[in-house]
Amino acid sequence: MKAHFGVTVWLGVCCSMTLLMVVIGGITRLTHSGLSITEWQPIVGVVPPIGDEAWLREKEKYAQTPEYRHRAADISLDDFKRIYIIEYIHRLFGRALGAVFCLPIPYFAITKRINRAMVAKLLMVALLGGMQGAMGWFMVKSGLVDTPRVSHYRLAGHLFLTILLFSILWHSFLRCAGVRSTTTTTNARFFTAAAVVGLTVLQMVLGALVAGLDAGLTYNTFPLMDGAIIPQSLFSAKLWHGGFLHDVTAVQFLHRLVAVLIVVCAAPLPFWLKTRGAWLFLACVALQFLLGVATLVSVVHIFLAAMHQVFGFVTLAAGVHMLCRLRREGSTCISGHAGIS
């Protein structure tokens, strides 16, 4: 039995908006627009600058940032407006997503279209959404102090919260849409499939570290790095003493290594599980791998990089869908009516 149609559509819209938010966030980062707004004003920040005086005030605030001093000291007002608007759209869309998600919850709860367990789950998502907004500002603040870019660790944390939010929303949507656990498989195969999906999440976080360090702008060949599969600089004692995840070479190598590992581990899944979901997941993994290589050799072309980022979420969605269709031996079938009373 499916959940109320309106609930299913609403969750589908929220999932779609989250993916669009990922695209906007990627474009914001790739165009170096994220540090153009130097204040966090959740309410009054909805209104953009109006008039030349207001724009000049915003540009003056931007002039106090490390990014302006190191990278954009000669930026014109028109160019500043362009990057400001990109970040403004990013923040405004985040507010819109929060409103679209939060406002219908009381109505669905009062009209009994969702049960108490679902209400609790959705309120947890709303709380995570608030944390995500705060994490976004925490990330931006790291680029307003000394260095002209945000902390790659905070960027990874920001992305991980998005992954968590999207996964919960997508799983809820699938269950409300009536997706059932209909294919029985062994515990070993189920947990192998789950581990590959977990590796996908790890790879997405590593991708955020690569992006935060601008590591994609180096070693723009594949499969070799500096003429070798394993670059010699990885064996430097200085690297290990200075911090492995601070090093551009190390982080990019890890991202490459996990990508290959995911492809190798995902390849046998369709033959083990014998489901269309496993084939879809493998296809997404393969396409995402090719997008990653294309992004690298193009020296991070904006379109390819944005598609690579959002397709990571598409691959994750395919993985979650694959797992939702599986039932371990000895377990009971999980029905698809988790959203109704």
Treating each run of at least 4 consecutive H or I residues as one helix, how many helices? 13
The total beta strand count reads 2
Q: Considering DSSP H and I runs of 4 or more, what fraction of the residues is helical?
A: 55-70%
The proportion of residues in beta strands is under 5%
Enumerate the spans where pLDDT stays under 50 for 5 or more consecutive residues: 333-338
Span between N and C termini?
11 Å
The largest sheet, given as strand count, sense and whether it forms a barrel, is:
2 strands, parallel
Helix/strand order, N-terminal first: HHHHHHHEHHHHHHE
- Which secondary-structure class do the elements indicate? mainly alpha
What number of structural domains do the residues give? 2
- The strand order across the widest sheet is 1-2
Shape: flat
C-alpha Rg, in Å?
22 Å
Global mean pLDDT: 92
